[in-house]
Design brief:
heterodimer, A: alpha/beta, Arc Repressor Mutant, subunit A, Dna Topoisomerase Vi A Subunit, Chain: A, domain 2, 3-stranded antiparallel beta sheet, globular, B: alpha+beta, Heat Shock Protein 90, Helicase, Ruva Protein, domain 3, Ribosomal Protein S5, domain 2, 8-stranded mixed beta sheet, 6-stranded mixed beta sheet, disordered C terminus
């Protein structure tokens, strides 16, 4: 069964793998040290160009040359590669955890492989990620998928047409789903989006619960919009889905989440420009036009929102602040002058050492169940976003 | 109003024996043994006699108090002996000491310990200590039971008689008291004996503890430690009250004379400096007895405000690296060790010297356990309450990981090691009267820490050598394990034939062989460094030939 592709990949993975193995083998025959190279996926190898809109890889590569210390890693890479190639060959798909156990199964069946055994999933995950970065292909293109998380979407106007692997088409009109949301997959799907009626905007809410509240109180009934819950740090599914909405429907997209360093860097930045860890895939997994609707520093004052002092004794919060300082210096996204308004928010957070949650809008008028909706619409109307 | 009564020193201690080491049956036995041994060793050193001790601790029945045994503790020495007339004072009177406040590095200081042991025996078994003693000048030995008269703080001799004794000189004490015997662990008797043996290379001891076989450990040094002259206290170590009390010892002399003879490091020039710093000139030649508290306060403040030369370090004594090296081998089969004697220095205006011995023993301790810590103050093992001690603090502050030892955060390092740290000073500040922990001042902790780090560096050469050895083994194993899999999978993915597979395997062996050669030469280098260190250590031990063989590895 062939899967539909997330993009037109020019690369033939099995062929590329064969070339790679051939090159390494020939090095060995000549008593030369074979090596593997992969894109360096870190901030110091990330470029940002506001016109492109997402983080792209620089020239740095991670080179693993054969020596006594690296021989284990190289053996593990080719071992895992063979397994993935077989999956591609027969059209089987797996999650990372399943691959972890499949490796264990193969190792159990042949005592010669025992030294390769993975002690925990982190070890096999890092090998899979390395193979992706080495071939510069998406994990999904190696038929390896994460489980679906986040991205529950509500709309009265959106219609999704999916072309199935056998050529059949499935049409999903979101307005007919009742209280059930549409759930994007962490797998590449061939989806065609259409608006039955003009869609005014797409709102991505950090908290799944708050998205659900807005929906229940009639947000999508009163507004021609797409409403989505991100559920924290966006998964590949959510990121790909936002990209798809941005690419196929020309609608403004707003993100509504907490005002803190973690949300700004880990959630919003990832949604908008991708991440350093996923450098090779940011092109298909980021929505550069998404805007930060709030909570904005100005809203705290304007709506007199309850907020909290960041506890520097809390290791997670202290780390987020430290990371924020680091981001201002080293993250090309926040350093770009196009994103000055966003880096100003980070600076404000570092200076004020406070955090304000998205749910604090519910404090403005507790008697009005749709006050939060009103504030959101007012902000969109006024252009009060970054 | 209730009547105010005055109690004797003996009464105070009899009621507060827990303050001086008698807080539990276990500690009672250890403290008694310790006090008796301290006295014997101090006496031997004072008379320049190489000590030979016989020790016996055994259970002889059931104790009178709940959950205790009746324990017999015997310590016999070849010291100078005690005159019959002094027995009552030595064993039965508190604060009767030849060493109190004298500024010498002796084990005992105040004259509390042995009297407290007598009191404990008397309280739990209704009999004080049984003593036999003979000096060279006595024709016959004297034997007596000494009790403490609690009401008057005086010793009472009972059943005094003379007898023929096998020794020309020496003292034998025998206690029968309630207690319990614990051999091993921090508070164990065996641990005590080992510690004492370690820091007293000139000691020969024969001991029988509980049901153990009788054992003898011979001395490894024939030099009795030269006890340095007593030193006068440094004025900067005093508090006002102490200062005034100190002056009472000097009677009717002038202030300047008191300052110059009662303290170290005060000269005529210093007196002038004191005046500059606010000491009224009129007081300089004033008689001490004529001075009031206000005067003393002015003098004291001026003295504290004036810079003085640091105290002399001549008054401290060391065991010495050579003797310590030999001594450590008496505790068991040593795998390797490192010793460090720091130069005497000044901490908190008191002369102090720190010595450290780190050793790994074959058949002793294990990887996952904390190291065994032996603490010493003036060559007396400290066995209780280690967590509050300056020595423990210093050890925990060192990053032992950099020397190759594993160490949980803020804890003692782990492994089959013995860490012995000895502090010698005429004025050690203890946290309590039972002398169990050394008060931790920043300066002292830093000094101990330095000694530990120097010893740690030496130790790390041994450990690094072992690590390099393991590294080579690991690398060789690595190649054998992963090499064939790598080739096999490459062949499978590329679809190559068997002859190419063979060629690639050969190539792999060549490449990885070069790596293992590198590891082997790193090992060789580590070996050479270690051999050089072993040579130096062997010279100290005087067994250069054996060490030559040993360093061949």
């Amino acid at each position: 069964m062939a899967l539909l592709k997330v993009r037109e990949l020019k690369l033939d993975i099995p062929k590329e793998a064969k070339v790679l193995a051939e090159r390494m083998l020939s090095d060995l025959e000549k008593s030369k040290r074979p090596y593997l190279e992969a894109v360096k996926t870190s901030l110091d190898n990330s470029n940002y160009n506001a016109k492109v809109g997402y983080l792209t890889p620089g020239d740095k590569v991670v080179r693993t040359e054969l020596n006594v210390s690296s021989v284990q890693k190289l053996a593990r890479v080719v071992f895992m590669l063979e397994l993935l190639l077989r999956n591609l060959d027969i059209g089987a798909v797996n999650t990372k955890r399943e691959l972890y156990y499949m490796c264990k199964g193969v190792i159990k069946g042949d005592s010669r492989y025992k030294p390769l055994d993975f002690e925990d999933q982190d070890e096999s995950d890092s090998i899979i990620d390395f193979i992706g970065d080495m071939l510069e292909v998406y994990r999904e293109e190696l038929n390896c998928f994460a489980n679906d998380r986040g991205g529950q979407t509500y709309s009265q106007q959106l219609v999704v047409t999916e072309t199935l692997p056998d050529g059949d088409k499935a049409v999903v009109d979101l307005s007919t789903l009742g209280t059930t949301p549409f759930q994007p997959k962490n797998k590449p799907q061939s989806l065609k989006l259409k608006a039955k009626k003009k869609i005014d905007f797409c709102l991505v809410v950090e908290s799944e619960g708050t998205a659900n509240t807005l929906q229940t109180m009639g947000f999508t009934k009163r507004n021609n919009c797409i409403l989505m819950g991100a559920q924290g740090v966006p998964s590949n599914g959510v990121r790909g889905w936002c990209k798809l909405i941005e690419a196929q429907l020309d609608v403004p997209m707003y993100f509504f989440g907490d005002l803190d360093a973690y949300t700004m860097q880990n959630i919003f930045r990832t949604l908008k420009a991708g991440s350093a860890a996923s450098l090779i895939r940011n092109g298909d997994f980021s929505a550069p036009n998404v805007r930060f609707l709030g909570v904005l520093p100005g809203d705290v004052k304007k709506y007199d929102l309850p907020h909290y002092k960041v506890k520097e004794s809390d290791p997670a919060e202290a780390r987020a602040l430290k990371k924020a300082k680091d981001a201002l210096e080293n993250d090309p996204f926040f350093r770009d002058k196009k994103n000055k308004d966003l880096s100003d928010i980070l600076k404000w957070l570092i200076k004020e050492k406070v955090r304000c949650e998205q749910q604090s809008y519910f404090s403005v008028d507790p008697k009005d169940p749709i006050k939060t909706e009103k504030i959101i619409l007012e902000k969109i109307k006024r252009g009060d976003y970054v | 109003m209730s009547k105010i009564t005055k109690s004797s020193t003996a009464e105070y201690f009899a009621k507060n024996l827990q303050q001086v080491g008698f807080s539990s049956p276990l500690k009672a036995v250890l403290t008694t043994l310790k006090e008796a041994v301290d006295n014997s060793l101090d006496a031997c050193e004072g008379a320049k006699i190489l000590p030979e001790l016989e020790i016996e601790v055994k259970k002889v029945g059931v104790g009178s108090t709940k959950n205790t045994d009746l324990i017999k503790i015997v310590v016999e020495d070849n010291g100078p002996g005690i005159d019959g007339d002094d027995l009552a004072k030595v064993f039965g009177e508190y604060l009767a000491s030849s060493k109190f406040g004298r500024g010498q590095c002796s084990r005992g200081q105040q004259g509390i310990g042995i009297s407290a042991a007598t009191t404990w025996a008397q309280m739990t078994n209704a009999k004080g200590v049984q003593v036999i003693s003979k000096t060279k000048n006595m024709r016959k030995a004297v034997s007596a039971q000494v009790d403490v008269d609690i009401k008057t703080n005086t010793g009472i001799l009972r059943n005094k008689e003379t007898l023929d004794w096998k020794k020309t000189n020496g003292t034998r004490v025998e206690f029968l008291m309630d207690g319990r015997i614990q051999l091993n662990g921090d508070g164990g008797l065996q641990t005590y004996i080992e510690g004492t043996v370690l820091v007293n290379p000139h000691l020969t001891v024969t001991y029988k503890l509980g049901d153990q076989e009788k054992a003898t450990i011979e001395r490894v040094s024939n030099e009795s430690p030269a006890i340095p002259e007593a030193t006068l206290p440094h004025p900067h170590t005093f508090k006002l009250g102490e200062f005034i009390t100190h002056s009472h010892l000097y009677g009717k002399i002038s202030l300047s004379k008191f300052l110059k003879t009662g303290f170290s490091r005060i000269s005529d020039q210093s007196i002038k400096d004191f005046v500059k710093n606010g000491m009224p000139k009129a007081l300089v030649e004033k008689q001490l007895t004529a001075m009031n508290e206000e005067d003393f306060k002015k003098v004291f403040t001026a003295v504290q405000a004036t810079e003085l030369m640091a105290p002399s370090t001549k008054s401290v004594l060391t065991v010495g690296e050579d003797a310590l090296s030999k001594s450590i081998n008496r505790l068991g089969e040593v795998d390797f060790f490192s010793v460090m004697t720091r130069k005497p220095t000044i901490c908190d205006f008191k002369p102090v010297v720190v010595e450290v011995a780190l050793a790994r023993f074959i058949n002793r301790g294990s990887e996952g356990e904390p190291v065994q810590l032996l603490r010493f103050a003036n060559r007396v093992p400290l066995q209780f309450d280690k967590s509050g001690c300056a020595i423990t603090w210093a050890i925990e502050s060192v990053n032992w990981k950099s020397y190759g030892l594993s160490q949980p955060k803020d804890s003692l390092p782990q492994g089959p090691y013995v860490f012995a740290v000895s502090i010698v000073s005429p004025f050690i500040k203890f946290k309590n009267a039972s002398k169990e922990t050394i008060d931790a001042s920043d300066e002292l902790v830093e000094e101990i820490r330095r000694a530990l780090m120097q010893a740690g560096q030496k130790l790390s050469r041994h450990i690094k050598h072992e690590m390099k050895e393991a590294d080579l083994e690991r690398k060789l194993a690595h190649i054998e394990q992963f090499g064939p899999i790598l080739v096999e999978k490459l062949v499978s993915i590329s679809g190559a034939n068997a002859s190419r597979k063979k060629k690639a395997e050969e190539g792999l062996r060549k490449i990885l062989g070069r790596d293992s050669d590198d590891a082997a030469s790193a090992l060789e280098e580590a070996q050479n460094k270690l051999a050089a260190q072993k040579q130096r250590e062997a010279k100290k031990l005087g067994t250069a030939d054996e060490a030559d063989k040993g360093s061949g590895l």
